[in-house]
Amino acid sequence: MALPVPARAAEYFVAPGGVGNGSGSFPFGRIQDALNAAQPGDIITVAPGTYAESLSSVRGGSSGAPITLRAAAARTAIVTRASRILTVSHAYLIVDGLVLDGQYAADDTVRVTSSGDFLVLRNTEVRRSSRDLIDMAAPAGVLIEGSLLHHALNAAGGRSDAHGIVTGAVRDLTIRSTEIHTFSGDGLQVDPGRAEPGWDRVTIEGSKIWLAPLPAAENGFA
């Protein structure tokens, strides 16, 4: 008996002002509409422009068929509003080349739940939070690569913690070729609650974490 032929992965397109069905000729206008439609193995390509929305994963991919959300050109698609920008609560999602700007909202710019295993955040800029730029619970297998994370600043009480990356009891977290700067807490904080059985296999390589005087006042800091 012949084996069934797997369905070909679909590609959805998003562009500012789009009112279509996500095809190349009639793109969606909202990235979330594409995430709502995407199935394992599908690719979402986002045209340059500004998107005033918050994004949440809807379903997971698989190890051989992740769902990919990518900018058509690196860091030309800006997702921004005064709120959390991305919530990942499903496994095997790739986010590639977007700019995620939280406008200093009192929330994390990106939050990854313990169900967000095997997230890949690549060539992505995450910026401007009054809390944490990336807050992870205890997912496994997360890769942050070639990315720029900056400006997590909370001036409450003179200075309050706002971290570049904070995690719970993660497993197999890799941060590679990534820059983290300008934060009022820690560049990276792992498992502050000392949860059992604790974090394991955290790798940081080829990355830079730094602070310097601000060139201009920013979110309550001189």
Describe, in plain words, how this protein is organized in 3D.
The protein is mostly beta strands and 222 residues long. 3% of the residues lie in helices and 38% in strands. It contains one helix and 21 strands. It has one helix at 31-37; strands at residues 11-14, 43-46, 49-51, 55-56, 67-71, 77-80, 86-88, 93-96, 99-105, 110-112, 120-122, 125-129, 134-136, 143-145, 148-152, 165-167, 171-176, 179-183, 188-190, 200-205, 208-210. An eight-stranded parallel beta sheet has the order 1-2-5-8-11-14-17-20, covered by helices on one side. α1 links the parallel β1 (11-14) and β2. The radius of gyration is 18 Å and the shape is globular. The termini are far apart.
Offer a few descriptive terms:
single chain; 222 residues; mainly beta; 1 helix; 21 strands; globular; disordered N terminus
Q: What percent of residues adopt helix (DSSP H or I)? A: under 10%
What is the straight-line distance between the termini? 72 Å
Gyration radius, rounded: 18 Å
DSSP helix count? 1
Identify the quaternary structure here.
single chain
Biggest sheet architecture: 8 strands, parallel
Q: How many β strands by DSSP?
A: 21
Note the run of SSEs as H and E. Answer: EHEEEEEEEEEEEEEEEEEEEE
Percent of sequence in beta strands? 35-45%
**Content-based structural category:** mainly beta
What's the overall average pLDDT, rounded? 95
Shape: globular
Numbering strands along the chain, what is their spatial order in the largest sheet? Answer: 1-2-5-8-11-14-17-20
